[in-house]
Write a structure and sequence with these properties.
- The chain is mainly α.
- Among the domains are: 123 residues, no CATH class; 61 residues, Winged helix-like DNA-binding domain superfamily/Winged helix DNA-binding domain (Arc Repressor Mutant, subunit A), CATH 1.10.10.10.
- The protein is built from 23 helices and no strands.
- The model has no long low-confidence stretch (mean pLDDT 87).
Length: 419
């Protein structure tokens, strides 16, 4: 039996001998072992509850149920259950700080899955502050995962590294559900220093059956990312293992299109199978993941000269979706792919500044300056913006000229004042 996922404030509730606590424990154990179906079934029973049981336990059960609905990407159901849970809490009077913190965390996770990244990060941060005030540690890991993923999606690598460091601290304490944290840490390392730097972490995820299963039923984007990274590393045995586990989970739990879509995407990548990538994009309930599958489909079609127009149409559709879900880093990559076809689309800034761009910088110059100010080398900036280091140097020279500075140190100081 894994440790209590609500450790820090829920121990007294989770250890009760009542039905609700029992269903919660079984739900958490099932999810931990890769069975989202059984986890959801037990969570649903726990959320149905018994009115004679403690109010906080009933609230906790409803919020846990919403959390698993989010992992299943049944977002409409998750929203309805969350609204119902909040309405019940309102009728019962003022909620405790710890339940208020959980509500913010769950709402933030729902918003992130819906693609509202900025609102999600605000909700998560609010919940985290409330949890810290009441001494609750259990919300730290899931909060840091969402905040790190949000920062990565927005290409804010300074914030991403900050939250990954926080996750590392929590991992030393053996927190429950460590798989998503390991995955986001691997992404951060890969984004900054290249996939080779994340090789041992990637291998550790794929070769640990418990971690891999838990990750694949928790993060829809994980399977394809792992396959892509393993292929880059030349670790085809690891890529195959990730694909096979994804396929097994999809076969065991066919009711979840999110698991099947992720499995098809992973298999399509490894096998270079356009039909599987197309189906993954069609059935995936996660907007970002569906766009990612279409982007990989476009890359596959790009090698066929006769598919040029179709490739461009797909990439333009992908770019629109990435922009809609605030995926700045991914948008930059697709903009550069379109540029190779002679299609020019504006580069999105990595940090929003309410429409004000300092010193007349272009969007690309702004993005370069933002990353250089965080201490990144030209190679690292190029990797994150998907341009060559020579192009980075060209834009950085323009930044220096426009800002009337001569060094990276001056840029970092000036940028700190501006942002």
């Amino acid at each position: 039996m894994p440790q209590n996922p609500f450790s820090g404030f829920g121990d007294d509730l989770m250890q009760r001998s009542c039905d609700t606590a029992g269903f919660l424990r079984r739900s958490a154990s099932s999810w931990f072992n890769g069975r989202l179906d059984a986890g959801l079934h037990c969570a649903r029973e726990a959320a149905a509850g018994n009115r004679r049981e403690p109010d906080e336990l009933s609230q906790l059960a409803r919020f846990w149920y919403v959390g698993l609905l989010i992992k299943a990407r049944d977002l409409d159901a998750g929203r309805r259950v969350l609204e119902s849970a909040e309405a019940v809490a309102d009728r019962g009077g003022a909620a405790s700080d710890r339940m208020t913190a959980v509500a913010h965390n769950v709402r933030g996770s729902l918003l992130f899955a819906m693609g509202s990244v900025d609102d999600a990060m605000d909700e998560i941060s609010t919940g985290l502050r409330i949890a810290e005030r009441c001494g609750d540690r259990s919300l730290r890991p899931p909060s840091y995962v969402v905040l790190a993923l949000g920062a990565l999606r927005r290409a804010d690598m300074r914030a991403c590294r900050h939250f990954v460091d926080k996750l590392s601290d929590e991992a030393l304490l053996g927190y429950f559900g460590q798989a998503p944290g390991a995955w986001v840490a691997a992404q951060a390392v890969e984004a900054r220093s290249g996939v080779e730097s994340a090789a041992s972490l990637i291998a550790g995820i794929v070769t640990n059956p418990v971690v891999l299963k838990q990750l694949l039923v928790s993060e829809p984007a994980a399977a394809s990312w792992l396959v892509r990274a393993c292929v880059k590393l030349g670790a085809h045995d690891l890529a195959k293992a990730a694909v096979e586990e994804s396929a097994a989970l999809a076969a065991e739990q066919p009711e979840f299109s999110v698991i099947r879509g992720s499995a098809l995407h992973a298999a399509g990548l490894l096998e270079q199978d356009a039909a599987k990538l197309h189906e993954a994009a069609d059935i995936h309930p996660d907007r970002w993941c569906a766009a990612s599958a279409r982007e990989d489909l476009a890359s596959l079609l790009a090698v066929r000269c006769s598919e040029r127009d179709r490739t461009i149409r797909i990439l333009e559709s992908v770019l629109d979706t990435y922009a809609a879900v605030s995926a700045t880093r991914d948008s930059a990559r697709v903009v550069n792919k379109l540029r190779e076809y002679g299609v020019r689309r504006g580069t999105t800034r990595t940090v929003e500044c309410e429409g004000i761009v300092p010193h007349g910088l272009t969007n690309t110059e702004f993005a370069v300056a933002e990353l250089v100010s965080q201490g990144h080398t030209n190679n690292e900036v190029g990797r994150q913006l998907f341009i060559s280091r020579h192009t980075v140097a060209f834009h950085l020279k323009k930044v220096f000229q426009k800002m009337n500075i001569t060094s990276r140190v001056e840029l970092a100081a000036a940028w700190k004042v501006f942002t």
